[in-house]
Amino acid sequence: MTIAVSDPPARMTHGFDYTKLVLYGIALVLCVLIVLPMSWLIYYAFVDKNGAFTFGNFVTLVNDPTLLDPLITTFTLAFSTSLICCIVAAPMGWLVARTDMPLRRTVRLLVTASFVTPPFLGAIAWELLAAPNSGLLNKIYRVVTGAAADEHLLNIYSFSGLIFVIACYTFPYVFVLVANALDRTPGELEDASSILGGSTWVTARRVTIPLVLPAILAGALVAFLQAMTLFGSPAILALPAGFHTMTTKIWSLFQYPPKPELAAAASLPLLILTVLLLRAEHMILGRRSYAVLGGKNSDPRLIRLGWMRWAALALCFIVLLNPVFLPYAALFNATFSKVASQFITFSNFTFHNIHFVLFELSATKLALYNTFVLGIATATIGTVVAVVISYLTTREAVSGHRALGFLATAPVAIPGIVLGVGLFLSYTRPPFVLYGTLWILLLAFLTLAMPAAYQQMQSALKAIHPELEDASRILGATRLKALRQITAPLLRTSVIATWCFVFVGTIRELSAAVMLFTSETKVISVLIFDLNESGDLAAISVLGLIMLVVTSGIVALANRLRLGGGSVRLRDN
Amino acid sequence: MTWTFSRRDVLKASSALALTFPAARVLAAAPAPTAITPALIEAARKEGKVVYYTSIDLPLAEKIAKSFEAKYPGIAVRVERTGAERVFQRIGQEYGSRIYAVDVVNSSDAAHFIAWKRDGILAPDVPEDVAKLYPAEHKDPDGQFASFRVGMSVIGYNTNLVKAEDAPKSFADLLDPKWSGKMVKAHPGYSGNVMSATFQVTRDLGWEYLEKLAKQKIMQVQSSTDPPKKLALGERAVMVDGNEYNALQIKEAGQPIEIVYPSEGTPMAVGPNAIFKNAPNPNAARLLNSYMFTPECQQLVIDAGALRSVHPGAKEKPGRKPFKDIKVMKDDAAGVEKMAEQIKGRYSKIFGV
Predict the structure, then answer these.
(1) Number of domains forming the structure of chain B
(2) Are residue B236 and residue B306 in the same domain, yes or no?
């Protein structure tokens, strides 16, 4: 007994806790990743061309209508998008989670498909569909109604067109939040309501909806943020329509002669607003925990819709036409058609576009290579770092773990384009000259991927009770051995799933990449963006379908591994 | 750390010296012409690749690259295609960070070459054809650049949507309310061709013209390669500006578009070539640059690309309006160079983007 008591303290004084070293190392890396670019951004916003302190950049920002108008446009855009997303996605989430609508799994899968479609690709596909004159849908409209050649049903080059396209690729965020909240809400509360005599609809109105309201509000905020910080879709649709959003304006400030000070100043409102909205989201979502109070949950009872379930299904499919079926059909059509705006027939069927992209376009090979190298590197490093951080924070292994968690989540507040500006300002000067290498893109992608990867791994680790590790350690294993033998095998599927999601998120990133690429470090998303500027829609379609194939392969893999939860937040561009 | 010199390094250093000293002695005059010699080809092949930044339409740029690769196997050309103003921005941004990626540049905004020359970042290189055959106004007296191509920005229309007798004949015709909402136009902040055109149009017709034009609900695209493509798609009936060469290519491919050379004169843009002092592949750069001025490549540029050439040996393709018969607006690269920033700013204010 005495021996047993005196022995462990002796070992503890000898052993050095390596986890501390890991903690400080990672904290330092995270600080450099986030704090350095943001400091340069703020510094630049407050200096003039000669490096003297000034508020002049902000004065210009407010007084110059070409800078102020985009700000107002952006807010209107984000607000409308958010509203539309909630109106469409919340009922769909409810239908999928709480009713006996058929094909619920398929609907969820198709929402995932719109989730992983790069928004800029969707925007280009909608150009093919709904450009006022050459758009395929407008052509059908004219044939069906016999309208004159210059009449059109839809005009995608418009403010409402832009809102529509952004909403198409933003509504999954609301959908996932709502559906997940409903999945987690225990059935007992609704049962209690029914037992007390509440009808189905009373229960829905007085129990279910209040329970998911926080999720809807959170979804609205996320949608607002997505729409506000998106770059690709406005660059593709707003410029032909003759207006700027904040992100395209920031990008255009880098045109010759570049005005980094103004770009930095214009980035700050985006950054501040994002931080504020995320605080709000946190407050709202923080309250949500009351929804999962009741110890063991029973599966919720599904509401019987009767004949209306087919109507509900039809409604879901009509919604899903817009982000998935129609755009991919248009891309497919453009891939094999001699003229992108003409329907495939025997006379204009061609393999030329595929041949051009794969064998004539000299940028394709390099861009594909860069994209995959970066995708794999970001996913691997990002997942490893996320695992380590979430281990340290969930097991509270070291003091200061809270700060670590905060640092890992902080990049969520940085819009891609703002991060791009910050990284450009930080890494084009000594001591770190990384611009022109893949490293700067790796840094950008890692930073952007970190919050999602961390959230994902953290929830996975929370689900593994520490008693398993404790048992191992009581039996004499070191912390690392316990990790390797007990925790790692349990985490495997989550790790692979996180890897896949970071990979998918990385290969479609545009907004940071467009600020940071050079000719040697071009990625597919930037190549697509360039091709759009010269009007080579067919080549884009080919590249888009290549991306689709790769992405769906990866997502299918992640789904096979039973990726739980929808807490993953893919970045939009 | 120890330094070791290979024989090749020594050779490189001595040849660099040999090149520098004579050039220093005759600073003001053009250097001796670059001939395509077996030694140059061999040196280029050792480098194995060359990077070509250009604003020329992508399929045409790749065609030129493929023809070079076919003629000089073992030297891969990588084309970096973006709008001329973006090419200029990109090189400025890269050089600002000491990234020397570009070997050969071609831009449809000749003003850029004035700026690059002033910055002292171009390497003198006079291909043999340029030295012997090119008119003086199409080559830099110090041998730093020469006109690779001549392009025009034309008006055009989709023949399915507009009858020939209704088609606009002049810039003034485009102000007719019947074209409201039916026109597409490229952007001078992006396209060098349109930058030159905007300079010439505002010089000859005044900014009031563009102010009136902006009220016509124009669809604004970026590259001057895009408006002819939008006409071919049928997306708009009329284009205000756009590359003549894209329009010709599309028309000759049987698509329903027609070109109009405006009666006020057609804006013209000269697109020179140059190589950089810090080119990573200097020999391949000189070989590619020389190749591009040969009658062979110039004829390809005319036949496949529908561009105009100032090479006296190159023949115009029958069926196209000969260059000498087209009334052009006078190009003035030095004027564009002075006005470029002002033009971009004022244009953005008028058109909103």
Answers:
(1) 2
(2) no
How far, in Å, CA of B239 to CA of B262, rounded?
12
Q: Please name the member of A240, A243, A257 whose beta carbon is closest to the beta carbon of B219.
A: A240
Answer yes or no: do B288 and B276 share one domain: yes
Q: Does B180 touch chain A (CB under 8 A)?
A: no
CATH number at residue A86: 1.10.3720.10
Query: Which residue of A534, A536, A542 to mutate against B (max B Cβ within 10 Å)?
Result: A534
The CA distance from B225 to B269, in Å, is 13
Q: How many domains does chain A have?
A: 1
Q: Which of B191, B229, B235 is nearest to A156 (CA)?
A: B235
Whether B288 and B304 share a structural domain: yes
Counting one residue from A and one from B, how many pairs have CB atoms under 8 Å apart? 135
The answer on B222 and B162 residing in a single domain is yes
pTM confidence score: 0.85
Tens digit of pLDDT at every position of chain A (573 positions): 344 444 444 344 445 667 678 778 888 888 888 888 888 889 989 988 787 888 988 998 888 888 888 989 999 999 999 999 999 999 999 899 888 999 998 999 899 888 888 999 999 999 999 999 899 999 999 999 988 877 889 999 999 999 999 999 999 989 988 888 888 777 777 788 888 888 877 887 888 888 888 888 888 988 998 899 999 999 999 999 989 999 999 998 887 778 888 888 988 888 888 888 888 877 776 654 444 444 455 666 787 888 899 999 999 999 999 999 999 999 999 999 988 888 998 888 999 999 999 988 888 999 999 999 999 999 999 999 998 888 888 877 667 777 888 888 888 888 888 899 899 888 877 777 888 899 999 999 999 999 889 988 888 888 777 888 888 888 888 877 888 888 888 888 888 888 988 998 899 899 999 989 888 899 999 999 999 988 899 999 999 999 888 888 887 777 676 544 444 444 444
Element (H, E) at A329: helix A326-336
> Hey, are the CB atoms on A534 and B348 less than 8 Å from each other?
no
- Check if the beta carbon of residue B200 is closer than 8 Å to that of residue B189: no
Is residue A474 assigned to a domain? Answer: no
Residues B104, B88 share a domain: yes
Query: Is A47 a domain residue?
Result: no
Q: A381 lies in a domain?
A: no
Domain-embedded: residue B62: yes
Position A270 in a domain: yes
**Rounded Cα distance, A412 and A321, in Å:** 30
CA distance linking residue B201 with residue B188, whole number of Å: 12
Q: By the CB < 8 Å criterion, does B226 face chain A?
A: yes
How far is it, in rounded angstroms, from Cα B310 to Cα B278?
Answer: 28
User: H/E/C letters for each residue in A521-548?
Assistant: HCCHHHHHHHHHHCCCHHHHHHHHHHHH
Contact A366 B78 (CB under 8 A): yes
Is B97 found in the same domain as B47?
yes
Domain assignment of residue B318, yes or no: no
* Contact status, residue A522 vs residue A461, Cβ threshold 8 Å: no
Distance from CA of A451 to the nearest CA of B (A): 30
Domain of residue B163, CATH code: 3.40.190.10
Are residues B250 and B145 located together in one domain of the fold? no
All residues at 6 or more sequence positions from A280 whose CB lies less than 8 Å from its CB, including other chains: A221
Is there a single domain that holds both residue B164 and residue B283?
no
The dihedral of CA A548, A553, A554, A557: what is its sign? positive
Residue B111 lies in a domain: yes
The domain containing residue A121 runs over which residues? Answer: 55-292+308-343
Per the structure, the complete domain to which residue B247 belongs is given by 154-266+325-351
Q: Tell me if chain A has a CB within 8 Å of the CB of B343.
A: no
Residues 6+ apart with CB under 8 A from A380: A499
Residue B14 belongs to some domain of the structure: no
Contact list in A for residue B85 (CB cut-off 8 A) is 255-256
